[in-house]
Amino acid sequence: MVQGRTDGNGAQPVAVLENIWKSFGGIAVLKGVTIDLQPGEIHALVGGNGAGKSTLMKIVTGVETPDSGTITIAGNEVRNLSPRAAHANGVYLVPQEPELFPNLSVHENISLALGDLKVSRSKIAEVTASLCDTIDLDSRASDLSISDQQLVEIIRGVLRGAHLLIVDEPTSSLTAKEAQRLFTHLRNFAQNGVGIFYVTHRMAEIFELCDRVTVLRDGVTVLQKNTEDSSIAELVAAMVPQQGQPVAIHEKQTRQAVANVEPALQVRELTGDGFCNVSFDLYPGEVLGIAGVIGAGRTELAETIYGVRKGLGKVTLNSKDYSKRTPNKSLRLGLSYVPEDRHEHGVFLLGSIVDNTTSGILERISTLGVINRAKDVDSAETFARDLSLQKGSLSRKVGNLSGGNQQKVSLAKALAAQPSVIILDEPSRGIDVAARADLYRLVETLANRGLAVLLISSEFEEIELLSTRVLVMRDGLVTDELTGEDISFGNIRDAAFGAHDSKKSA
Amino acid sequence: MIKHILKSRESITVIGALGFIAIIGIAQPSFVAFSNLARVANSTVILALLTAGVAVVIITRNIDVSVGSTMALSGIVAGLLLKNGMPIPLVVLLTLVLGAALGAINGIGVSIGRVPSIVMTLGTLGAYRGISFMITGGHSVENIPSQYKKAGTATLLGIPVFVWMTIVILVVLGFVLAKTSFGRKIYATGDNIQGAHLIGVPTKTMTVTAFAASGLFASMAALVFLAQIGSISNQAGMGIEMRAIAAAVIGGVALTGGVGTILGASFGALFITTATSSLSFLGVPGFWSDMVIGAILLIALFADSQVGKRMERKRLEARYQRAKTVPQEISNDPVNAGGAL
Amino acid sequence: MQNLKKYLFRWEGALVVVLIAQILIFGMLNPRFLNLDRLISSSSDFVYLGIIALPLAIVMMTGGIDISIGSMVSLTAIVTGVCFSNGLNIWLAAFIGILAALVAGVINAALILSTGANPMVITLGTQFLFAGMAIGISGLANVSAFEGISGMPDSFVQISNGDIAGIPNMLIIFAVIAGVFAFILHGTTFGRQARLLGANPKAATYAGFPIRRVTYLAYGLTALGSGITGVLMTSYVASARADIGAQVLLPVLTLVVIGGVSMYGGEGTIVGVVIATFVIGYLQQGLRFSGLSESEVSVATGAALVLVASLRWWTHHVAERIKNQKVKKQAATPRPQAAPVASS
Description:
By secondary structure, chain A is an alpha/beta fold. Chain A is 35% helix and 25% strand.
C-alpha cells in the first residue's frame, strides 16, 4: 500500500514549508511559519484555538493558497497547489470535521476518495473492520454517528497510502479502543516511511505517539523540539506563556457569592443531545466556570438552556419556571448567550456594528415596528465605549473587524438585552492578548454588577482566573465540582482529562 | 434499510405514475388502449430528455432554466441545416455539439465566472431565445425534409422509434450516473462540494460537464421536436424548462444536491405528461393542466418534507439513546487519561 | 471627499455613473433619445417591473426567492377582470384581485415554512398552481385568451396611462412605493430582521428573530407588489389577460440582481433596485433607439445580467486578496522563530 520504504536518516524531507503567510478578511492567521516533516516521523502540531494549525494544514493540502511562502514536497517546490495536485503528490488530510457525502454510502464515500487507486471491496472491508466493528459499508454516511464518520475519514486516509498524512484532532470523537487502533495504524505508517502531521490538543497523545512537536501561537512558531527533550509543562508554557499574557495582566479577585440569595439560574437534571443529567445553581454576582475538553457537551448544554436546542429537564430563571425555552424568550427574560462559534452563530458579518448590537433587542427599541434611530445608535455607541471597541464609524461591517473586535460586538449584542444571566461560550477563542485582557476585566465588572455569569472555556487558565466555582464536564456529564482553594490549573486539567479517575483506578 | 427507503422514493414516483394511468384507465378504458399509451409515451419523449439533463445539473446542486431556449436554438440551427440539404447524420452530430456547447457556456459561467446558476441560466434563457429570433427573424423554420420527418412517425413493435431511443439513452445515462466513478463524482460534487474538492474531485469540471450534458439533452429534444412537429419556431419550448424542473423534483431529485436518479426523473416526466394528457379523457378542460402540475409538485414536496422530518426525529432519538449509554464508556478511557498527565 | 469616494465605490454609486453614462452615450448616438419629456414619459414602459422588484429584493435579502411573481400578476389581472365583467365596480374588482395575490403570497410563505423546502421549488410549484388557476378562471369565465377582458372605464385605464403635471402616474406610483419600501427595509424591525436573517440565518435564530413573521411579511409584500403590478398592467393595456404576467420573472430578477442584491441573502438596498430599474429600462430603450431589434436587446440584457453577477464576485475576490497582501506588508516584523530542530 505504501510505496517504497524510505530510510529516515539523511533522506530528503517529506515536506518543507517556508515562511508561510496567510490572511483571511484582512486578518493575518499565519505570520511566516516554517515547518518541515521527515520520512517516518510523526510530527505533533499543537497550539491554542486560532493559532493557525488547521490553516497551515489546509495549505499543505492545497485547500487554501498561502499569500506568500514556499512549499516543497518530496524535494520539489510546488506552486498553485490544489487538493488534486496535493493528492497526486501523496498528501492526504483527515480533516477535523468529517467532510463526507451524506447521501452516498460508506463504501462510495471511501472509494471516491481513493481516486484512481483500485481497491477491492474486501480490502476496504478488511481495513474498516481493523478500526471499527460496527460500520456497515452500505449504510448512508448521514446515518453514521460523528465518531463513525470520523473513522470513515481515517479509513480513507489509511487506504489512500499517502506519503504525507495529516490527521487533524482525530481522537476528539473516538472511543479509547478506536483511538488505540488508530495509533497502531499510524505507527505502522511511520515505520514504512510515511511522514505524519498530527494536530491535537491532547498533551498525552503527543508523548505517547509523536517524535517531534511544533507549537504555534497566533500564527507564529514558538517552539519546535523532539518530544523526548520536551515536557508537558514546556509545551503548555509555550502555548500559553505566563509572562506578558492575560494571567499577568489580570489579577484574580476574590469574590464571595452572597448568601441567602435566590439563584438566578437553576438547572435540574437537564438531558439533551450530547449531555446527560446536568444540575447546578448559578447565583447573582458569581462566575461559574464550566471546564472540559472539546466534545464534553458544554456548548450543547448552554444552547439547550438558551433555547436553541431541545432538552428534557427543569430550568428555573430568576425563580420562575422556564420550560418552553426559545432564544427570543430568553433575551426578554434576561438570559443572554455569547455563542462559541462567532462567525456561524454570534454575529452578522454582513451587518454593521449598529445592526449587530441591537439585533437581539429590536422590539425594545422600536415603536409599532419602526426602529427608533436615536436609541438604535445610542445603544451601539454605549457598548462600543464600554467595551472599548476599536474607534471608527459604527456603520462599518462587522466582517471587516478583527477577531477581538468581532467578539466585542458579539458581547455587546448579548449585553444590550440587559441580562441578569449571561452565558459566555469560549469567549477568548481566536482573540489577541489585549482583547483578552479587556474581556477578563469585563467579566469581573459584570459579576461585580450582580450579573450571574456562566463561563464555558477549554482554556483552563481562564477558568482558574475568573471563576468563583468550577464545574468540570466530561463526555456529557458533570464529573467534578471545584470550589475555593481547589480551583487550580492542575486540578481543572486533571478533572477535564479524567486523569485523577484513572490514577484512582490504576 | 436506508437504501430501500431511498429506492422507494423513486418507486413512489413510478407507482404514482403507473397508478395514475391505471385509475384513468378504469374511468376511461380508451385511455389505456395501446395506441393511446404509445401516443402518451411519444409525447413524453421531449420532456423526459429535458428532465434527464436538468436532473444531472440539479444533482450537482445547480439549476438550469435555459433548456427550453437551448432546445429552440439548437432546433432552429438543425432545421436550417437540414433545409440546406446537409446530410442528416452530420446535422445530428453538429446539433448535439452545439447543444453541449451552449450548456457548457452555462457551466463555465457558473464554475469560473462564479455566477449563481439561476442567474446564469436566466441570462442565457433570454440570450439564447434572442439569438433564435435573430436567426429566424421571427419566422418559424418549416419544410423540413420529409426524409427526416419520417423518423418521427417510424415505429418498432408498434411503439415509436423515438420512444425506444429515448429509453436506451436514459438507461445509458442512468447507468453512467449510478455505476461509474464519473457518476459518483457528479453526485459527490452536489452532495458536499467542499468535501469533494478536498479529496481531489475536479468539481469545476464536473459542474461544466453537468451543464454540457443538460445542453446535449436539450439538443436531443430539439431533434425529436423537429421530426415530430416538422417545423420549429423561436417560441418552441417556451416555459418547458419549469416543467422539466418540476418533473425532476417530482421524481425525487432534490434541489439540495446529491440526491435523485434518472429513473425517478423520467417517471416524473411521464407523470406530468400523463396527468396533463389525461385531463380531456376525464372531461376536464385542458386549461387546468398547469394547476395539476403545480398540485402534483407541491404534494410531492410536502410528502418529502414529512418523510424527512420523521427520519430526522428517528436519528435524534437514536442519538439520545447513545447519550444515555455514555457513562459506561467513561471509566475505561486510557487515551484521555494518559500517564503523562 | 472621503464620503464621495465611499459612495462612488458602493454599488449604488457605480449604478448612477452607468445610468448617466449610458443616457449620454445613447443621446450621442441618437439625439432624439435625449429628450427629457420623452425620457420621463417613457418610464411607464418599465417602472411597473420595479414595483415587484422592490419587495422581491427583500425576499432575496432573506435568502429566499419567489418564482411565482408572474403567476400572481396574472392571477390578480384575471380575478380583477372576471369580477369586473360580472358587474362589480372596477375599483372593488381591483381590490379583490390584489387580495387574491395576497392570499397566494401567504400560501407561498406557509408552504415554505411548513415543508422547510427550498423556496425556489416551492414557488416553482405555486407558479404552476397560480398560473393554472388564472388560466382556469379565465377558461371558466369563457374569456378569449388573446383578447382578455376589456371595456374598463376610462378612469381605471388612466391610472397607468395618465399623468399629473407631465409626470406619468405610473412613475409617481413607483416613487411612492419605492419610498415606502425604502422605509420598510431600512427603518423598521421587519426590514432589519429580513436583511440580517439572510446574512446569517443561524445567528438570526440565536438573536431570537421571529423568523415565521419575517417570512410571511416578506412573501406577503412580494405578493402585494405583484398584485399592484397586475392591476397597473391591466390598466396599462386596458385588458385583463390570464397570461399577462407570464414574461415578468426574468426582467424582474434582472433588476434585483443588477440592483446589487445578493442571491445568497443579506446584502442590498432599495436605492440600488430603484436605480437598476432605470438603468435596465433606459438601456433597453437606448438599444432600441440605436436600431437594435427586440431580440438583440434581450441578448444584450441577458449578457449584462451574467457579466454583472460575475463581476460582483470577482471584484470582491480580488479586493480581498489585495487586502490580505497588505496585511502581510503592514504586519510588524515577524517575531524571531525558534530554530527548527532536525529530527534524528
